[in-house]
Amino acid sequence: MAGLATTFGSGAMTNPINEITDEAELMFLIGTNTTEAHPVIGYKMRQAARNGCKLVVCDPRHIDLVDEADYWIRHNPGTDIPLLNGLMHIIIKEGLENKAFIEERTENYEALKATVAKYTPEYVSSLTGVDEELLYEVAKLIATTDKAMLFYTLGITEHVCGTHNVMSCANLQMLTGHLGRPGTGVNPIRGQNNVQGACDMGALPNVYPAYQNVTLPEVQAKFEKAWNVKLPNKVGLKIPEMFEKANEGEVKAMYILGENPVLTDPNSNHIRSGLANLEFLVVQELFLTETAEYADVVLPAASFAECDGTFTNTERRIQRCRKAIEPIPGQANWQTICMMFNKMGYPVNYSHPEEIFNEMASLSPSMAGVTYEKMAAKGIQWPCPTIDHPGTPYLHAGKFTRGLGAFQAIEHQAPGETPDSEYPYLLSTGRILQHYNVTTPYSSGIASIWDREWAEVNPHDAAVLNIRTGDKVKVASRRGELTTSVKVTDRVLPGVIWMSFHYTESPTNAVTSDVLDPITGTGEYKACAVSIVKL
Question: CATH 3.40.228.10 spans which residues of the chain?
Fold first, then answer.
């Protein structure tokens, strides 16, 4: 959510998970297969829908929640912006916008209005493939519902225009006044466990903990004083930039902890060549992953069950994590990192993760009031600026962080790569429930229930290609190729193939696009051109 940093912060949910069942009257889902990628929250959505909460699902693929939905908007891949602009066009045309909220809490409305005026129902239908009448029904439902929660995940962000997709989601919620109250909000559901916590702690190239900008002199001075070391004031490299520089020979060493970019990053052949070009690679891992095979040194890692510390979930809730067993390597990951600090000449002497957390909190205004004692029972949702502060269940009550919420005038942008005569199919990727965010092949239990990649192909395309469920095909792009089994299903649109990326034998990211969102550096996993050949 970097493109809205001044308005919505880190990309966490603005509202808590429990409001799905306790407060919301409408759930608007776009680019999120929640029951498979986030099954606990997905279960709450099912529960809410069955108890009368309206559900709108916007997804080109027939995901499970479509069967619970009041409305399914099956738009063409890569047309999220025209879809959202089209809904806003209708809301404004019908006079259903929240005029009081717009006047009191936002700015730049006229620019938004001028842009969405061009996205008439007829034009939007031609781009998205969605029936005009359906657009009207959904737009009116959103605008006339008091409490509507918008949810999105990687189906919105993993595009060349991912940041602009996010801005469009925020536009819709501001236009209808669905922010700053219970049962509303812009709610991105974060990926793997503690992604939110990693970002909160400063594991980003442009910020220190709590999103304090590295380029601000006063911030730099504060951390230099606390850590007694000179710090750079330049923004670092994003992950794609790191591998670009590795291929060019400018980045010469890497330390990778708990990540397997060879399997999970787009255009994996480019990742492999970058790793091979490094002078020195350290990987700290539980298993000898595809990435660890390139390492000069492999350090043993401790799993979550072997670690004390904190996790921060998608609703900004900081929670205690208590180890169930002693670390099998003999020490936790933080202890290994501290040993490296000391070997490199920077003395550290922490005795427990609580000391590390307290140091971080003392330097972070939004978490200054969080302690292990306070979070013991059920965690604390930041911002929590003082010891007597109870935490913040929902954001932007009364005003936005930046003052007024800024509408953004966003135009449609096509995917970075579209099908052509040589590569006539569009490949989209995602997660499957059986792997629940696991991207390693090391669990025999998981392998026993889902033992191979199944590429989903529409029956129309299967007939043209003369393939059936269970057949093997070669999927190729301009970057690489792979072999996979096929499942013939109308879950996907004609002309579209869908795959997960969990299997070493079918490394989907060997073919995915190397096109990036220019603002965040996020890869366009959701759209690339491929060919399919029966084997």
Answer: 2-189
